[in-house]
Amino acid sequence: MYKLLPFLLEDYKRSSHITTQEVSVLERFSQLLKEKPDCFGRQPGGHITASAWIINPRNNAALLTHHKKLNKWLQLGGHCDDNPDVTSGAVREAQEESGIEHFSFVISGIFDIDIHAIPNACEYHYDVRFLLKPNHGNFLVSSESHNLAWVPYAKIEEFTQEESVIRMNKKYREKFI
Description:
With 177 residues, this protein is α+β, with helices and mostly antiparallel strands. Helix content is 32%, strand content 29%. It contains 5 helices and 8 strands, in the order ααββββαββββαα. The protein has helices at 4-13, 20-35, 86-98, 156-159, 163-176, and strands at residues 47-54, 61-67, 72-74, 76-79, 103-105, 112-118, 123-134, 145-152. Strands 1, 4, 5, 6 and 7 form a 5-stranded mixed β-sheet that branches. A 3-stranded antiparallel β-sheet has the order 3-2-8, with no helix packed on it.
């Protein structure tokens, strides 16, 4: 499974979903994979994480979490826990954080990538994001969140100013609506 992520990243590099901002991020991902083959755990300095941009069944809102530790509205996701299968990691995190059991991949590959600092913790998350859609819109708030909300695409920036969340929202709206 470890060898899957480089292929996913290579496919993403050629996809229509990558932004110019993400091209330089791809180089840092490749460097991490070469230098730290165990980067799917919680190694200090930085490691791979998996997240999901989750759209509702009516296709008019994205599911955001008010993250308890970071106190920010973000996409759902988290650590891979030594599992190099980032696709299953993204689904597992979406299930754990939302209580929703069944998700479908809207596209077969990566939807977005980002590297962001996590102060006083892991240093950096090298986040691989997938585009998911649940079979229903009913969720449960997990212990990792203050709250969850289906946020209409036009109102995302009222909830968060996180650049990568805004980028995913813009990307989704331009390509899928």
